[in-house]
Design brief:
The chain has 288 residues and is an alpha/beta fold. The chain is built from ten helices and twelve strands. Strand 8, helix 6 and strand 9 form a beta-alpha-beta unit. It binds NADP nicotinamide-adenine-dinucleotide phosphate.
Length: 288
């Protein structure tokens, strides 16, 4: 095996108490006997630029980016991947040998890979109810549209944000129909009763506020698909209620592992073995 250089990776976000990314990646690096390290960098928005400069000074190889920096970090980067540009959010930064920083987005591919592995049902022509209109919503919607989704129904608390996503995506994806609603709009239950898949991209229900649910899921039908991007806890109140109503429910854990694998590929040009990703995910999952 080729001798490897030390490489520094990490996660930039704030707060980061809920993150299991360092456990996941360091488990993999140890198993692959790589001299790599993955660190949590809890950085407040006011320190984002100076923190990036410090990471550059120590020669970091790349970072993942999470709330609240996914959009704000763009202005500090030199290049954006086509996905990151279309989505308007970055979750992976790659430090080039020339010192330039490239922003990518693997949330989109991570969600689609997770859907294909877990839900396994056709995306093409299907209707999706998306809760929330932030960075993760845009990534999920972009991925679904690329796969030929029939209808995207965005339910969010700031209606203008939904309209903005509609405008952005309609320009790119002519075959998908878009419509935005206020998160409390009564139409939600009629879409659920038509068996639109429900995807929660809001942080409502995430640790420590686990007793919260983003919307009432009246109208949800037996056999419907419900995804919650939250992975801590793995069974949110939304998923528990949906399951008790006969829905097929999925947490954000597989998406988390899939997007991590795609980030590793962007950083190193190598693919992680599926069984090692599952093993590391299982190990890291114990810390949720
Ligand atoms: P974000 O950009 O801050 O967007 C969050 C969205 O949720 C915004 O539209 C926000 O509304 C909405 N929201 C927040 N609180 C709400 C409330 N009380 N009621 C209704 N809507 C509310 O965050 P993000 O990056 O998209 O992440 C969102 C969630 O997805 C987080 O829980 C994150 O951990 C999860 N996520 C998981 C993965 C994974 O791999 N599993 C990947 C990415 C994200 P406003 O726009 O009105 O503020």
């Amino acid at each position: 095996m080729k001798e490897e250089d030390v490489k520094i990776f990490g996660l930039l976000g704030y707060p980061l108490e809920h993150s299991i990314s360092s456990i996941f990646f360091n488990y993999i690096f140890e198993k692959l006997k790589l001299p790599y390290g993955y660190f949590l960098f809890p950085v407040k928005p006011s320190n984002l630029s100076s923190s990036l400069n410090k990471l550059k000074a120590i020669g970091f190889a790349g970072v993942n980016v999470t709330i609240p920096h996914k959009e704000k970090i763009i202005r500090f980067l030199d290049i954006l991947s086509p996905e990151a540009e279309a989505i308007g959010a970055v979750n992976t930064v790659i430090a080039g040998a020339d010192g330039r920083l490239t922003g990518g987005n693997t949330d989109s591919g991570g969600f689609i890979n997770a859907w294909k592995k877990e839900a396994g049902e056709k995306i093409q022509g299907r209707s999706f109810v998306i809760l929330g209109a932030g960075g993760a919503a845009r990534a999920v919607i972009y991925g679904l549209c690329k796969e030929g989704a029939g209808r995207i129904l965005i339910f969010c608390r700031h209606f203008a944000k939904g309209l903005k996503i509609e405008k952005l995506m309609t320009e790119k994806f002519k075959k998908t129909e878009f419509k935005s609603f206020n998160i409390n709009d009564e139409k939600l239950s009629s879409f659920l009763s038509e068996k639109a898949a429900l995807i929660n991209t809001t942080p409502v229900g995430m640790h420590p506020d686990t007793k919260n649910i983003p919307v009432s899921i009246r109208g949800l039908r037996k056999g419907s698909i419900v995804y919650d991007l939250i992975y801590n806890p793995e069974k949110t109140l939304l998923l528990k209620k949906a399951k008790s109503m006969g829905a097929k429910t999925f947490s954000g854990l597989t998406m988390l592992l899939e997007q991590a694998g795609l980030s590793y590929h962007l950083w190193t040009g190598r693919k992680l073995p599926d069984d090692l990703v599952r093993e590391a995910g299982k190990f890291a999952g114990r810390f949720l």
